[in-house]
């Protein structure tokens, strides 16, 4: 199998867009947590603590999503560098590893989205029950 220098470059646009989406999710959740903490300081409602715990788990998952996304991009660039130096075999392994990191990042993203959906369903449960 041969790998051209353009192949790892294809990951650049996809990975950068994914990282941007992850960062937006992180910032949104951080804003929600700050608001919930202010509300908790005023009311000390236990359900707010449960929401904050859920959001904290999601922040942790987003951090790992970002870690594996950045690692994927780094390994892809390193694979391109090795291709530039004409080290075909090592670049193939590094590119494969970068694809694996991207898969891990996407898998964690799916997990985080699942948690988000469950939390929204629990939040809307009382409205659905009234209907």
Secondary-structure topology with pairs:
Elements lengths: L5 H38 L2 H39 L3 H43 L1
A few lines on this structure:
This protein is 92% helix and 0% strand.
Account of the 3D structure:
The chain is an all-alpha fold. 92% of the residues lie in helices and 0% in strands. It is built from three helices and no strands. The protein has helices spanning 6-43, 46-84, 88-130. The longest helix has 43 residues, at 88-130. The mean pLDDT is 89.
Largest sheet: none
Would you identify the regions where 5 or more consecutive residues have pLDDT less than 50? none
Shape assignment: elongated
Oligomer designation? single chain
SSE series: HHH
Rg, rounded, reads 20 Å
Q: List how many beta strands DSSP finds.
A: 0
Q: Pairing-aware structural class of the strands and helices? A: mainly alpha
Q: Helix amount, in percent?
A: over 70%
Please report the number of helical segments: 3
Question: Tags for this entry?
Answer:
3 helices; 131 residues; elongated
């Amino acid at each position: 199998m041969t790998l051209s220098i353009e192949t790892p470059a294809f990951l650049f646009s996809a990975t950068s867009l994914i990282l941007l989406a992850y960062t937006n999710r992180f910032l949104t959740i951080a804003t929600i947590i700050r608001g919930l903490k202010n509300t908790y300081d005023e009311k000390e409602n236990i359900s707010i603590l449960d929401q904050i715990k859920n959001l904290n788990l999601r922040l942790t998952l987003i951090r790992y999503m970002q870690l594996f996304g950045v690692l994927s991009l780094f390994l892809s660039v390193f694979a391109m560098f090795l291709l530039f130096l004409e080290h075909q075999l090592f670049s193939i392994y590094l590119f494969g590893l970068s694809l694996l990191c991207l898969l891990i990042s996407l898998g964690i993203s799916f997990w985080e989205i699942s948690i988000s959906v469950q939390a929204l369903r629990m939040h809307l449960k009382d409205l659905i029950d009234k209907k």
